[in-house]
TrEMBL record:
<keyword id="KW-1003">Cell membrane</keyword>
<keyword id="KW-1133">Transmembrane helix</keyword>
<feature type="transmembrane region" description="Helical">
    <location>
        <begin position="523"/>
        <end position="542"/>
    </location>
</feature>
<feature type="transmembrane region" description="Helical">
    <location>
        <begin position="367"/>
        <end position="387"/>
    </location>
</feature>
<feature type="transmembrane region" description="Helical">
    <location>
        <begin position="20"/>
        <end position="40"/>
    </location>
</feature>
<dbReference type="InterPro" id="IPR004869">
    <property type="entry name" value="MMPL_dom"/>
</dbReference>
<feature type="transmembrane region" description="Helical">
    <location>
        <begin position="206"/>
        <end position="226"/>
    </location>
</feature>
<feature type="transmembrane region" description="Helical">
    <location>
        <begin position="303"/>
        <end position="329"/>
    </location>
</feature>
<dbReference type="InterPro" id="IPR050545">
    <property type="entry name" value="Mycobact_MmpL"/>
</dbReference>
<comment type="similarity">
    <text>Belongs to the resistance-nodulation-cell division (RND) (TC 2.A.6) family. MmpL subfamily.</text>
</comment>
<feature type="transmembrane region" description="Helical">
    <location>
        <begin position="590"/>
        <end position="611"/>
    </location>
</feature>
<feature type="transmembrane region" description="Helical">
    <location>
        <begin position="179"/>
        <end position="199"/>
    </location>
</feature>
<keyword id="KW-0472">Membrane</keyword>
<feature type="transmembrane region" description="Helical">
    <location>
        <begin position="271"/>
        <end position="297"/>
    </location>
</feature>
<dbReference type="GO" id="GO:0005886">
    <property type="term" value="C:plasma membrane"/>
</dbReference>
<feature type="region of interest" description="Disordered">
    <location>
        <begin position="717"/>
        <end position="737"/>
    </location>
</feature>
<feature type="transmembrane region" description="Helical">
    <location>
        <begin position="232"/>
        <end position="250"/>
    </location>
</feature>
Length: 737
């Protein structure tokens, strides 16, 4: 493995012109394909196998004229304190606003509150439901402007008017967080390398790789049903690993140059060793992302596979484009002090002083460091026992958003459950008298504890299917609402007995409840799949049983601690104000799965890069304690820089208004902080110090069947093969005291 990649690096370095041109041609082809491809499809967030999805599909089949995914808005009119919306001037203004709403370009229909029972009992508020003839993602900014213009008519009359619903969701001015993150990454790289060229190279190559992968995804989006949302994780992770992988190759090249190797031999060894680690680190990320298929939600599977493509491109860029670009700037990529130094190995003494001091500290106190690290992570993980998953809606938005204010006004005037009605879909195809049977079910549902009211049933043209809304007494994210959905489903056989009918519970609230349950149930199988496969992969990489197990257990600790921190902030409200969290509630259902997939890949990256350098020193004859110190001296600074870059990337999203983005940003930043600095930089060396030679133990029978991949570059230390350079002798550092 190391020999093959070393030759690949040497080839890319020597043939740098054609290699760079080839990548530019790939970029041009991806640009042409992406720009000429059909428009990306809308999100299709189906949840196969759950009742709410089956009911949704039945609705589409039995009500062919119904646009199930059409955008909708709810416009709320609130009278001044002590007055009623039914008074003449307010009623006239509302009717004028409704008439104006109905004339919107994309509006299908508007329900007049005075004709559709949309006035609260005390007359303080009314609402008008607006249905568009396009999906929510297709509602244009002009249509939203027309809605606001209609609302101004009522505002001018003295009413408070707010609007919520799916049609009010608009794409924000994206890109700000990414620009800030890239700027912070550039600063960190500059501090790490002390060279503008060395700092810019990982950013440049990573951006090119992300452009290729994103444009290629755009080109095949229509054919494979990949929505715009599908590429979000691909872009985030592609940028993250693209910088990381290039960073490690460039760092190893600079190290070999400091030891006196010519540029071509330095890049050959860098790609052979660090490049091998990049390849296997990338493979662990691929495992984590492909494992999203275990969840059983098509959209998550597509997102995972799109991100896999981005990671594969990042690996190829690191192994080919990075050495080619280094060929154009073999000296400028070095720091000024290294360029001034002419003696071989002159910079070796000052290399990694911080990493060396930390390694020696851990070697002196491994039990204390291990105990403290486990206690800290264990304490942070305790709140996970109270984890609640859900899909917060407009109530999670800041009070500055009209959607949040509309939600609050509706809850105040009509009750908290009004914002999340349950839809009961009745299949009455076998009923002798469908209307009577449906009416009987509606009456039974209305009598269930927790149901405030039910709407009149609506039948399809064939008369064999009907649906009606049941308004809960509690909010959509309340645990009592989840219990109500369960009670309705449990009472199904009792309500439908002898009627020749059956019913299913769906609607946005029920879909969110089912989605949360499915994702929560998939967490353990997903973790078992990705961790199990990664343990097998690391077994091959490190030829050890204990190191893969230690890596997996460390990852589980850091993930549980990050989830616990997220529960403390977003669910319990600890320091919520500092992070702009205005409303606590359940953790969004998809966040843990996303976090586990992304963090697992990054955690295994750091594990491979750090421990592979220790193994490299070990197989070259150093004692375990010496190898640990050598690994930290060469890798700690780069791993810390990579972790800081990732934290900067993810932390930039914490202060976004969108609750999902905020949670993702916080959870990823916290997980990288805990995994890189507590697990990889503290627990890992402490465990290795205690294990000694046993850390690298592999039973003889297993040693004979496990393939040898040589990521530590042992083959590069032998006599040259063809044009492969021999590795010069490396000074062995003194043992730690």
């Amino acid at each position: 493995m190391a020999t093959i990649l070393a030759r690949l690096g040497r080839f890319a370095f020597k043939r740098r012109g054609p290699v760079v041109l080839a990548w530019l041609a790939i970029l041009a082809g991806a640009l042409f394909a992406g720009l000429t491809a059909p428009s990306v499809p809308d999100d299709d967030f189906s949840v196969p196998g759950v009742e709410s999805q089956r009911a949704f599909e039945l609705m589409q089949e039995r009500f062919p004229g119904l646009t199930a995914d059409a955008g909708g808005a709810t416009v709320v009119f609130v009278a001044p304190e002590g007055k009623e919306v039914t008074s003449a001037p307010f009623k006239s203004a509302i009717e004028s606003a409704v008439q104006r709403l109905a004339g919107g370009d994309q509006v299908e229909m508007v329900a007049d509150p005075f004709q559709a029972y949309g006035v609260s009992r005390d007359g303080s508020a009314a609402y008008a439901s607006v249905m568009y003839n396009v999906p929510a993602s297709g509602v244009t900014a002009d249509s939203r402007a027309q809605l606001n213009a209609a609302a101004d008519i009522a505002r001018d009359a003295g009413l408070t008017v707010e609007a919520g619903g799916s049609a009010m969701e608009s794409a924000g001015g994206g890109g700000t967080a990414e620009i800030i993150a890239i700027s912070l990454a550039a600063v960190i790289l500059m501090i790490t390398f002390g060279s503008l060229v060395a700092a810019g190279l990982p950013l440049l190559t990573a951006l090119l790789g992300v452009a290729v992968s994103m444009l290629s995804t755009l080109a095949v989006s229509d054919a494979f049903g990949l929505s715009a949302t599908t590429g979000t994780m691909a872009m985030m992770l592609g940028l993250a690993v693209g910088i990381d992988y290039a960073l490690f190759v460039v760092s190893r090249y600079r190290e070999e140059r400091r030891r006196g190797l010519p540029a071509v031999e330095a890049i050959s060894l860098a790609v052979g060793t660090a490049g091998s680690a990049v390849a296997f680190a990338g493979l662990t990320v691929v495992i984590a992302l492909a494992g999203l298929a275990v969840v059983g939600i098509p959209m998550l599977t597509k997102m995972g596979l799109a991100a896999v493509a981005a990671v594969v491109v990042a690996v190829l860029v690191a192994l080919t484009l990075v050495p080619a670009v280094l060929g154009f700037v073999p000296e400028k990529v070095l720091s000024r002090s290294a360029r001034r130094s002419q003696a071989a190995g002159a910079g070796e003494k000052s290399l990694g002083r911080g990493g060396t001091r930390w390694a020696r500290f851990v070697l002196r106190r491994p039990v204390a460091v291990l105990t403290l690290g486990v206690v800290v992570l264990g304490a942070l993980a305790i709140p996970v026992t109270a984890l609640r998953l859900g899909m917060p809606g407009d109530e999670s938005k800041p009070t500055s958003a009209t959607e949040r204010r509309a939600y609050d006004e509706l809850a105040k005037a009509f009750g908290p459950g009004f914002n999340g009605p349950l839809m009961i879909v009745v299949d009455a195809g076998d009923a002798a008298d469908p209307k009577q049977a449906v009416a009987s079910i509606a009456a039974d549902v209305a009598g269930v504890n927790g149901v405030v009211s039910v709407s009149p049933p609506q039948f399809n043209d064939a008369g064999d299917t009907a649906f009606f809304d049941a308004v809960p007494s509690t909010s959509p994210t309340d645990e009592a609402t989840k219990d109500l959905v369960r009670d309705l489903r449990d009472a199904r056989s009792q309500f439908t007995e002898g009627t020749g009918t059956t019913f299913q519970v769906t609607g946005t609230t029920a879909i969110n409840i089912d989605l949360s349950a499915k994702l929560q149930g998939a967490l353990v199988p997903y973790l078992a799949t990705v961790v199990g496969l990664a343990v097998l992969l690391l077994l091959v990489v490190f030829r050890s049983i204990l190191i893969p197990l230690k890596a997996a257990l460390g990852f589980l600790l850091s993930v549980l601690a990050a989830l616990g921190a997220m529960v403390l902030v977003f669910q319990e409200g600890l320091a919520a104000n500092l992070l702009g969290v205005e409303q606590t509630g359940p953790i969004m259902s998809a966040v843990p799965i996303f976090m586990i997939g992304i963090v697992f890949g990054l955690a295994m990256d750091y594990e491979v890069f750090l421990v592979s350098r220790m193994r490299e020193a070990y197989v070259h004859g150093e004692e375990p304690r010496q190898a640990l110190e050598t690994g930290f001296r060469h890798s700690a600074r780069v791993v810390v820089a990579a972790a800081l870059i990732m934290m900067a990337v993810f932390a930039g999203f914490i202060f976004e208004h969108d609750a999902f983005i905020k949670m993702i940003g916080f959870s990823l930043a916290a997980a990288v902080l805990l995994d890189a600095f507590v697990v990889r930089m503290a627990i890992v060396p402490a465990v290795l110090a205690l294990l000694g030679h046993r850390a690298w133990w592999l039973p003889g029978w297993l040693d004979r069947i496990v393939p040898r991949v040589d990521i530590e570059g042992e083959s590069l230390n032998r006599a040259p093969l063809g044009d492969q350079p021999a590795r010069p002798e490396e000074p062995v550092p003194a043992s730690a005291p």
